[in-house]
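so my prof wants the structure for this chain in the tokens format not the other one, which i didnt know existed until like an hour ago. anyway here's the sequence
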Amino acid sequence: MKNIKLIEVPSEIGAGTRGASLGIEAIKIAALDFMSNFFIHFPSEKIQTENKLLYEPIESPYAKRIKGISAIYERVGKAVCDTMKNNFFPIVLSGDHSTAGATIAGIKMAKPKSKVGVIWIDAHADLHTPYTTPSGNVHGMSLAATINENNKDCAVHELDEETTKYWNSLKNLGKIAPKVLPEDVVLISLRDYEKEERYLIEKHGMKVVTTKEVRTKGPENVVRAVLRYLADCTDIYISFDVDSLDSSISKGTGTPVSNGLREREAEDLISKFMQNRKVCCFEITEVNPTLDKENLMAEIAFNILQRSVNVLLMN
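here's what i got, hopefully its the right format
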């Protein structure tokens, strides 16, 4: 049985839409509505944010608020690293997905010799860099930072010194880069990405599992195939962005996309992955209750969280 620790990161400065910083509280409200005392069962740590930057002018247009994100990376990386070194299983609840790069850095800092595999359940690839970004939102860059990729082949922007410095600090957090090899990343339910990201997926031969594949083969077979693909990895991190769900149910997130997973498919996938002993960390991200009716997105996220933790506790 694993000791679980919750790491709460109510930061939203990496996102383009406002409100994701409220996602964690919304998930807690969902737990209360379900009469669940889930959140009093586990120790938790709340990471200090830099959300005050939302009220200030943007300094780096191609990596908005990256200075604040760099500070959060340090805090999250340390929290995840310390949690794992103390033999706890970190479950990260984050506002926006930029945090994931820091979570992975924390895993690598705790276990520098490990070969980390990443299961990225997300409508988006998050493989942009400040050189290629169409939006400047850093939540679209976390995987690129993790695999230490600038993608200068597809560059459309020139970066100033400051942006370059902070971007390098994200990629090199923990003094290890890359944290993960691109061939050890599996993208599930990916369906909304730009040509610059496709270039990296093809260049590195990254594995993509479509929503259609999940539907035709079934979650169990997909899980088996993915774990076989990541067989060489010693540790596996799972990142679940709620926009991987179909836009008919994922209203409460900043970037909903049609043709996504059904709630049950996501729940089955994640709980089956969680049965594998290599899984060392799980993150849920991008719940935005300000875009939602009836707190539906947070309720779905809570159901998935609860079922995943139950699986961990049984292992």
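also thought this was worth mentioning. The beta strands are 4-9, 44-46, 89-94, 116-121, 185-188, 207-209, 235-241, 279-285.
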